Amino acid sequence: MAIRLDGQAALVTGAGRGLGRSFALDLARHGAKVVINDYGVGLDGRGGDPSVAEAVADEIRAMGGEAIGNAGNVASHEDAYRMVKAAMDTWGRLDIVISNAGFLRDRTIHNMAEDDWAAIIATHLTGAYNVMHHAWPVFRQQRYGRAVFTSSNAGYLGNFGQSNYGSAKAGLIGLMNVLKLEGDKYNVMVNCLGPGSFTRMTAALMPGDRAAQMSPDLVAPAVTYLCSPDCQDSGYIIEASGGAFGRVAIVENDRVQLSEPTADDVAEHWAAITDLEKARPMWSIRQTLEQHKAEKQQPR
Ligand SMILES: NC(=O)c1ccc[n+]([C@@H]2O[C@H](COP(=O)([O-])OP(=O)(O)OC[C@H]3O[C@@H](n4cnc5c(N)ncnc54)[C@H](O)[C@@H]3O)[C@@H](O)[C@H]2O)c1
What we know:
The protein is of the alpha/beta class. It has helices at residues 18-29, 51-62, 77-91, 114-142, 153-158, 163-183, 220-226, 263-268, 270-273, 289-297, and strands spanning 9-13, 33-37, 67-70, 96-99, 145-150, 188-196, 237-241, 244-248, 251-252, 280-281. The protein folds into 2 domains: 9-249, 3-Layer(aba) Sandwich (Rossmann fold); 252-297, no CATH class. Helix content is 40%, strand content 16%. The chain starts with 8 loop residues before the first strand and ends with a helix. The site of nicotinamide-adenine-dinucleotide has 33 residues, from helix 1, helix 4 and strand 6.
């Protein structure tokens, strides 16, 4: 199997640095043309520098690839429209969207100012909605699309002091869960990534000598696979860090039926109610993933 993305067009947000830059370069190495979006902000999301996106677009062009720099803000609905339009105007298609732009404003909940909450939700969660809203009509018309949202274990597992960030990153799981259903009949696959890598965002949290071992380049192969026609899975959360890859899932068990239940009955059956031994991942509120896969294999 040789994964190639020749003739395909991609949009990667936050692609001027760190993980996004590695994702964009790897997509380009596999033949994709890439819109490099980056607002060029500081670590706390303030400021803006258009040269950040352009520098990575230059890198791709220097490798012999095709790229457009875009210095828009993903939190702006109009800027997100212009990112999608840039791909359509230049290449007439958009096959891949990676929603990755982001920054941190960590505070414990009692210190979390309204602006720190709103700015993080606007960029990580609303930013993903913005690009997907504008890319979706293109995906539907092409009857093809691949999307990856950079989530975080701070959202689906939890990390102290990151209520804004964790909520936004968990929100991306909800967005994925719905879009995977809306995209199913259009061959649109939507997945989430839980990365771990040494970037400016995490430099203060990891010893500097782990930079090579935790390079974002070791995460990028998961994203390239998820964005390829070879990937036929949707709604997965894939963890990737230091060259190690795995999966996280929300699972559901069989409910315990109680007759005329009281709180005492719930307490009495608590061990069975919360037992996950036979729990399985779901495709939707109606079907397990297994049932969905079996149904898809049925001749229509
Ligand atoms: N590094 C990790 O270990 C790690 C772990 C989990 C999740 N993440 C997530 O991965 C993504 C990339 O993070 P990174 O570590 O590469 O950080 P980074 O700071 O190196 O890169 C993020 C880029 O996003 C850009 N950006 C920020 N706000 C933007 C906006 N509103 N519009 C457009 N661009 C914007 C920044 O300018 C920056 O270049 C983020 O969403 C982050 O939350 C990172």
